Amino acid sequence: MSVLFSNSAATILSAGAGNAATSITVADGSVFPVITGSDYFYLTLEVDSDPELKEIVKCTARSGNTLTIVRGQDNTSARTFSTADKAQLRLTAAGLNDVATQADTDTTYSVQDGELSENNFTNADHTKLDGIEASANNYSHPSAHAISFITGLQTALDGKVDDSQVLTNVPSGALFTDTNTTYSVQDGELSQNNFTNADHTKLDGIEASANNYSHPSAHAISFITGLQTALDGKVDDSQVLTNVPSGALFTDTNTTYSVQDGELSQNNFTNADHTKLDGIAASANNYVLPSNIKTQSIVTTAPSSGTGFADGHVWYVVA
What we know:
With 319 residues, this protein is an alpha+beta fold. Helix content is 14%, strand content 14%. The protein is built from 6 helices and 9 strands; from the N terminus they run ββββββααααβααββ. A hairpin with a 2-residue loop joins strand 4 (54-63) and strand 5. The radius of gyration is 58 Å and the shape is elongated.
């Protein structure tokens, strides 16, 4: 924020202004300084017919011939002005006091070794310095290094052959004789079979601690948890009075009961229902065996290979 001045800046009002007006219009605003930011200048307004009637205002903005002003500056009071009254940029006490206050108070130091630099340390310089690592240098990697610069390189090269160790350059189409040495195989040493990439891939596909187990074609009853107990609960021929002859007829001896609330169902419980119920195991559900489960059979004698065998079929032998 700075106070501005301009030599011989004088014009007249092109329209009257009341004592509360915050802007005035002059005949030629270009005679006054260009205002940017918070800069300003002091303007003296004077009644043309009476030089004693004047007011000092602060002009804070100018747009063409229109001036934005703050009234009653430098111990003067706001008053009414008319067209053709004077508007001039004069030297005022307020302007001079502002200049003194705004004077450059920077101290200029002489530059000694280890002290300030003659070049200003700008924000850009500070940002650049922040981006530099502590103890950084101006090192540039060379385009090439000597062999000795690479650790172990000379030793590695010494173990290789060069042209002086090769009898001649190999001609196009030359054939080479296999000079590989065959070693005998001892326990814990090399294998006679080459370990190929395919072998490595196969080994990667084998689980740790894998074995060569093959599932047997049949199991004893004792191998199936709970099977013997389940069989013990079933009847056999010794528990049936007689074999039922083919074509035998049975007389219906069912008793018909009247139906009371909380008693029998109104639907008859038929022989067919009884037979169906007998065929349902205790705690049975409506489970359907998935189609991808292998078939199984329980037999008293293990079958031989051939007829009756199917891939994945498991036989359980009842001893």
